[in-house]
Amino acid sequence: MRQVIATSDGPKAIGPYSQAIRANGFVFVSGQVAIDPATQQVIDGDVAAQADRVLRNLAGILKAAGSDLEKVVRTTVFLKDMGDFAVVNQVYGKHFGEAPPARSTVEVARLPKDVLVEIDVIALA
Fold it and tell me: Which of 4, 14, 5, 6 is nearest to 115 (CA)?
């Protein structure tokens, strides 16, 4: 069974994709950027503020899918500048705590809306 997840607790999709898909006991959340769901605008702030907003967006979408950050098994972090790795790591650690998921982190040339960080996740439903 494949279920599309759509919630106002995360930003609306800015393209032809779903916020998340729930299928076969997993939730696949599309890459999230630092858009405030209330305004649908990129937030002001540095990479730490953006990473925090991204992780709160992911949490809201996961909640709508019947999951949460504690059930995340895999993430991919996309950074505009790998020099921001340590700062993003601190914010990331506050959201994932003692048993963080498996993760890849890559530097990319550009991200949607020229944000500094994007994260996607796979979680248990």
Answer: 14
